[in-house]
Design brief:
The complex is a heterodimer of chains A (about 280) and B (about 110). By secondary structure, chain A is mostly helical. Chain A is built from 16 helices and no strands. The longest helix of chain A is centred in the middle third of the chain and has 21 residues. Classes of the chains: A mainly alpha (about 280), B alpha+beta (about 110). Chain A: InterPro entries: HD/PDEase_dom, HD_domain, HDIG_dom, HDOD, RNase_Y/CdgJ.
Chain lengths: ~280, ~110
């Protein structure tokens, strides 16, 4: 057992690839569409790699005969919200892929990010925060796989032979679970408290005063596992938290096909774009 | 020919496709475009969707499967879902409702 401490985790964080600053800038400054247009275009024009990603993704979203040539036209054609969404997603995926963990990790993060974003649209939550919370909900697991791959494999081996809660097995092997580790990382990156709560609570969202964002990430992860996004033999749904459903005022007896269809289509489209 | 519903990104939509479900586009909670199920997509209609920053639509596509093949697909989807839910509490009403919602979509 590693018996990790918060201090040991903090000391390890400089070993991670640099966290994309534009994510925290978008979350902190760029909430207001009108005030943020020029600020976002300025950011993009200073970063040719991200600007190229935005244009590539924007062009792939258009009909075949139209090609967008610059960041400003991309913003006006596909909309400010969509550009912010592309910047957040591609920045976070680049970060995850720089960790060189198996593809499943970042595909799962992408799926949960998109699904949390769709839930935010459906239930009126902040969309940027929802996307980032979903993309980062398993950042503690990525940390485990990047810095302690043998112990991470041990967790997988235990779970494949006996049905036990993931976090319980992680605490046995690491001394902490990926939710607690993720919270330390997110706090170090100065992410909003609402996102930190979502990272901490997504496996055990049973507090009666549960925040809506934490509830959305929990439900999104269950949806993605239930839809096999991405496909993996050991996808599981063990519980769906009643306080989470209550926090979102969500009723599964209503027709959810439209929500599920949007999540499915967006994931398949985004995965094809980033591969 | 039978049809089935598919959710496709805007870039995969073509003139002549029919909406399988109503399409409602909102901006900050306000409805900016609403099209009914069955609406036939045209080139100007697709441009209109683009102008409203639509991203996806549910359309009808041809379903070449026989009745037997369709039934076999549905059984396969249900078996996979039971595998995913194998450790969930089958007596929980929330789990049952969630299972049924996922199954309804996977059978589309």
């Amino acid at each position: 057992m590693l018996n990790l401490s918060p201090e040991a985790i903090l000391a390890s964080l400089p070993k991670l690839p640099a966290f994309p600053r534009i994510v925290t800038q978008i979350l902190a400054v760029l909430d207001d569409d009108n005030a943020s247009l020029s600020a976002l275009v300025n950011h993009l024009q200073r970063d040719p790699v991200i600007a190229g990603r935005v244009l590539s993704a924007a062009n792939a979203s258009q009909f075949a005969h139209r090609t967008l040539g610059g960041v400003s036209s991309a913003v006006s054609f596909i909309g400010m919200r969509r550009v912010r969404e592309i910047v957040l997603t591609t920045s976070m995926l680049d970060f995850s892929r720089n960790l060189r963990v198996p593809k499943f990790f970042w595909e799962h993060s992408l799926a949960v990010g998109i699904c949390t974003h769709e839930l935010a649209r459906e239930f009126n939550l902040d969309e940027d925060r929802a996307l980032v919370a979903g993309l980062l909900h398993d950042i503690g697991k990525l940390w485990m796989a990047y810095l302690h791959s043998q112990e991470e494999q041990k967790v997988e081996d235990i779970l494949s032979s006996q049905p036990r809660p993931l976090c319980e097995v992680e605490r046995e092997v690491f001394g902490m679970d990926h939710c607690a580790i993720g919270a330390i990382i997110a706090r170090y990156w100065k992410l909003p408290e609402e996102i930190i709560e979502a990272i901490v609570e997504h496996h055990r969202p049973n507090r009666p005063d549960l925040g809506k964002l934490a509830a959305a990430v929990h439900v999104a992860e269950a949806i993605c596992n239930g839809l096999d996004l991405p496909l993996r033999n050991d996808n599981q749904v063990i519980e769906i938290s009643v306080p989470a459903l209550q926090a979102l005022e969500m009723d599964w007896n209503a027709d959810m096909s439209d929500l599920l269809g949007r999540v499915d289509a967006r994931f398949q489209h985004a995965r094809a774009l980033v591969q | 020919m039978a049809v089935r519903l598919r959710y496709l990104p805007l870039s995969a939509l073509t003139p002549g496709m029919a909406l399988g479900r109503p399409l409602v586009i909102t901006d900050r909670g306000r409805i900016t475009l609403r099209l009914p199920a069955g609406h036939l997509l045209t080139e100007p209609g697709l441009e209109q969707l683009l102008a409203h920053h639509a991203e996806y639509a549910c359309v009808e596509v041809e379903d070449p499967r026989t009745d037997e093949a369709r039934q076999a697909d549905e059984e396969k989807q249900e078996a996979r879902l039971r595998e995913i839910f194998r450790f969930a509490d089958p007596d929980s009403p929330e789990i049952a409702a969630f299972f049924n919602a996922l199954l309804a979509y996977r059978k589309l």
